[in-house]
Write a structure and sequence with these properties.
3 helices, mainly alpha, flat, 0% strand, 158 residues
Length: 158
């Protein structure tokens, strides 16, 4: 091997052997395969335990949601007129929400340059539209939930 000069890159030599070129004792290869088999069995057992724990965790976490779904279903059955009114209100509020979002998007298009350059302009925009978006979305979500004709029996059970 040449020694590297200032204009040449340095190279190193590395010996690489294929697996079948490596001399092995027959007793060692048998114990290695036994160790690998044992390790794979332990890995499968650990993965099965992990799957069992995940299933139990899903059952525990979904129990509260199933109870809320059942209570909501009972409330809707006890108050069918109010549930219908909530559905109608949700439909109308969705139209209003669309109009508010459209107006906000139009204003951003018109005043984009000012908003980038002027902190007061962006603050004014957020003050006017931020609370509207938050409150309107929360009320719309509530009305949608209460007015949604869902059946608890159709929810996913684990």
């Amino acid at each position: 091997m040449k020694s590297p000069s200032k204009n040449q890159q340095g190279y190193t030599q590395m010996d690489v052997l294929r697996n079948d070129d490596v001399p092995q004792n027959s007793s060692e290869s048998g114990s290695d395969s036994g160790n690998i088999e044992s390790l794979l069995k332990n890995l499968i057992a650990a993965q099965n335990r992990q799957n069992d724990l995940l299933q139990k965790m899903i059952i525990i976490m979904s129990a509260g949601q199933q109870q809320r779904d059942q209570e909501l279903f009972q409330w809707k059955n006890a108050n069918p007129n109010l549930a219908r009114s909530c559905r109608n209100a949700a439909d109308k509020l969705a139209q209003i929400q669309t109009d508010v979002i459209s107006a906000a998007a139009d204003e951003v298009d018109l005043k984009f340059e000012d908003m980038v350059d002027n902190e007061y302009c962006i603050g004014d925009f957020l003050d006017r539209y931020g609370p509207r978006f938050v409150h309107l979305s929360a009320i719309l979500q509530l009305f949608s939930l209460l007015g949604n004709p869902s059946d608890v029996s159709s929810t996913v059970r684990w």
